[in-house]
Amino acid sequence: MIMAQVGYSKTVMEHFMNPRNVGVIEDPDGYGQVGNPVCGDLMEIFIKVKDNKIDDIKFRTFGCGSAIAVSSMVTEMAKGKTLDEAMKITRGDVAKELEGLPPQKMHCSNLGADALHSAIKDYWMKIGKIPKEEPKEEERSEGETCPSG
Amino acid sequence: MAIYMDYQSATPVDPRIAQFASPYLTQGFGNPSSLHSVGLAARGAVEDARAMVATLIHAEDPGTIIFTAGATEANNIAIRGTAQRNFSKGKKVLASAIEHISVINPMKDLKKAGFDFATIPVDHEGIVNLSALEGMVTKETVLTSVMYANSEIGTVEPVKEVSDVVHSKGNYLHVDAVAAEGKLDIDVQRDGIDLLTLSSNDIYGPRGVGALYIKPGIRTQPVLVGGGQERGFRPGTEDLYAIAGMGEAAHLASNEMQSEQDRLRAMRDALIGVILKINDSRLTGSRDRRLPTQASFIFKGIEGESILLTMDAMFGIQVSTGSACSSKTLEPSHVLLAIGLKHEEAHGSMVLTLGKGNTLEQVPAVANAVKQTVDRLRALSPLYGK
């Protein structure tokens, strides 16, 4: 019998209900934040780096079930990896590890990899490996549309 | 132990109603248009149901009631049918900013067909702004649609006052009463209503059936065309099970509304009292002009779909939300935006709608679950505390 998948996968719900690596790292080596509360999703990731590897990682997320599960999963995938390996984790990899996300959530809530990459780049900028970027103004007015689909 | 608190989304059919209507599936199956005895028995069942629905809303006579396949269909006939039938009076239509999507979207369709459609603003409690309405209605306004009450924020509209404004300057008033039926004493004559939409499932009847009240003398036209059933306004062979069930639902609602609503109002007040003790929580909608079954909130720093999922998975309590993330369009509820909430505030919405399965004894468990849910999600949120 074919069973249509409705709602979130078991893995998404498991990570949503028991998120890994929640919290804040005081004095992190790298920090990344993506999303916008106006759109309903905001994620931040903190990393500690040791021997070019992600030694510790924590996150906090405001958002829907998939946003929280994505954040939890990406921290678990990145922990212990080298920075170069962690940079290669894509949104698609995270969704695959979660046994899929509903189509309408693939973009708006699947920001975990972006937050991770942003934290790694922040570290690389601090140690002078890549040039410092001017902080981008991401203020969004209420009339603008949020990402979807 | 599961606690269902989402009765505005769906209700179980009352077992007494299922028992009453089930024989029409297998035995009293005739076509009400047939002139033989089996057909006449079926016709009798439909007319009995019509009388019960008319009684629930104090209509002039049963002939004012048209059965439809649900409230969406009734809203479409009321809006498209009435606007198109009467376009010689004018091509303006109005709806409150917090109407259900099955009112808003037919109005938008009329706009594409050349009508001028505008929305009537509401205040921060969701009450229609009567002076704004007064400035908007003209004799060219062929139809104005204002709901009896709003399911998402619980606010009860001043329908009689709206009717007075509409009839002093414009033409017809349509009222979507789906959220209010069985909860408030709706009287179409006292309230000055020309067209009124009802749904069966909202009074514990079967799904897939609703009704439209059309005041005597109001001219409208069908959306679907076919045979002459339901005075031609809704052609198609009648669904006897559904219609008989809706009739019995209306009958029970008429008899039991007062005691049931007193019971649920006490529970609603207890829930509101204890949930508002949570820091940075707010009631949405009006405190005083409120459905007896409705308690809705926003919580700072967290998101509604996460509230819904946590309440369900961790505590077995089913609730609703107006958050964008739980909707198919990923837009926050237009109702929450219309009462002046910012997008980031509207995301943190939780809606409880009470019904027959709820008891006062459930209040402490629900309140505790809400508190723990809010605490859990705030601990995860970068937007709350540090």
Helices and strands in order, then pairings?
The complex is a heterodimer of chains A (149) and B (386).
Chain A: H1 10-17, E1 30-36, E2 41-50, E3 53-62, H2 65-78, H3 83-87, H4 91-97, H5 112-126
Antiparallel strand pairs in A: 1-2, 2-3
Chain B: E1 3-4, H1 15-21, H2 23-26, H3 37-56, E2 65-68, H4 71-85, E3 92-96, H5 101-112, E4 116-120, H6 130-136, E5 141-145, H7 159-169, E6 172-176, H8 188-191, E7 195-199, E8 210-214, H9 240-275, E9 281-283, E10 294-299, H10 304-315, E11 317-318, H11 334-338, H12 343-346, E12 349-353, H13 363-380
Parallel strand pairs in B: 1-11, 3-4, 3-5, 5-6, 6-7
Antiparallel strand pairs in B: 2-8, 7-8, 9-10, 10-12
Helix pairs in contact in B: 1-9, 3-9, 4-5, 9-13, 10-13
Termini separation of chain A (Å)? 29 Å
Overall pLDDT confidence of chain A? 88
Number of strands of chain B: 12
- The helical percent of chain A reads 25-40%
CATH class of the largest domain in chain B: Alpha Beta
**Total of helices of chain A:** 5
Provide the gyration radius of chain A in Å.
16 Å
Largest sheet of chain B: 7 strands, mixed
Low-confidence stretches of chain A: 139-144
Can you walk through the features of this model?
The complex is a heterodimer of chains A (149) and B (386). Chain A has a single domain (22-126), classed as Sufe protein. Chain: A (Alpha-Beta Complex), CATH 3.90.1010. Helices cover 33% and strands 18% of the residues of chain A. Chain A has helices at 10-17, 65-78, 83-87, 91-97, 112-126, and strands at residues 30-36, 41-50, 53-62. Chain A has a three-stranded antiparallel sheet with strand order 1-2-3. In chain A, a hairpin with a 2-residue loop joins strand 2 and strand 3 (53-62). Mean pLDDT of chain A is 88; it is low at 139-144. Chain B folds into two domains: 3-9 and 257-380, Alpha-Beta Complex (Aspartate Aminotransferase, domain 1); 16-252, Type I PLP-dependent aspartate aminotransferase-like (Major domain) (Aspartate Aminotransferase, domain 2), CATH 3.40.640.10. Helix content of chain B is 40%, strand content 13%. In chain B, helix 8 (188-191) links the parallel strand 6 (172-176) and strand 7 (195-199). The two termini of chain B are 35 Å apart. The chains are: A alpha+beta (149), B alpha/beta (386). The A-B interface holds A 8, 13, 16-17, 19, 22, 24, 33, 37-44, 60-65, 67-68, 104, 108-109, 142, 146, 148 and B 301-303, 305-306, 309-310, 313-314, 323-326, 328-330, 332, 342-344, 347, 379-384, 386.
